[in-house]
Amino acid sequence: MNILPFSFKNDLHELLPNALKNILRKKEDTIEIEARLGLILDKTTGSRIDINAKHPIIFSTKNTPFTFCSGVKEGHFNKLIKSFENFPKETSEETVVITNKVRKVYEAGKLKCTMEKIRIITHEIHFPNSEYDVRIAISKETFIKDIGPIKDKKNVIRRDRSRISIPFNKFRFDFTKIDNTNENCYEVELEVTEPCYDNEIFFGCLQNLVI
Fold first, then answer.
1. Would you say residue 160 lies in a domain?
2. Residue 100 domain-assigned (yes or no)
3. 197-79-91-155 Cα dihedral, nearest 10 degrees
């Protein structure tokens, strides 16, 4: 029985090539597996890539003239949250300070944790008949002792975020609003939370998020 606010009627093996299964790996304690919505852009024109295809295409933008830009429109963001209105939710207000590979997470002005995050691999999926594309990223996250005040002030990124998290099966949907000085950003992510997860449910969630 499907209790998600969307259907799994599509043939997932046709929508996403079986090669994607080789990208995913077992979820270990220090491994983060996440997918996020955004657009694959041409670096020269700044426009979304336009590939004449009837099915999703998996590739890596590394060393290519393309780049992945994370984020969705506010209207789509709110529409997706509304589709989960009958699901239990967790909310959080945090500030994330990033420098090099180290992240400090603050909640209510107090340091919550410090971690080192190292990207292992990324793959992008272009959905030619949908509004958004997807990036799947696998990273290693290690909690570390606080490194003290950040000395390199020039290379610091600060993200003030409001997040709604929705646990489902062995995954978690994260809907995050990031408050920027000039313009707010809206991010949608799907993260694996348990080691033995079902690839097809993961694929199905992605397919329905981008439509």
1. no
2. no
3. 90
Nearest to 36 by CA among 185, 198, 197: 185
Domain count within the chain: 1
Residues composing the chain: 211
Pinpoint the alpha helices (H) of the chain: 12-15, 19-23, 74-83, 199-210
43 is in which domain, residue-wise? 14-88+119-140+165-210
pLDDT digits (tens, 9 = 90+) for 92-134: 999 999 988 899 999 999 999 999 999 998 999 998 889 999 9
Tell me the whole-structure pTM to 2 decimals: 0.86
DSSP string computed for 36-75: EEEEEEETTT-SBP----SS-EEE--TTSSEEEEE---HH
Token readout for 64 is: 């290519």
Alpha carbon of 10 to those of 38, 47, 139, 169, 207: distances in Å? Answer: 22, 29, 29, 20, 9
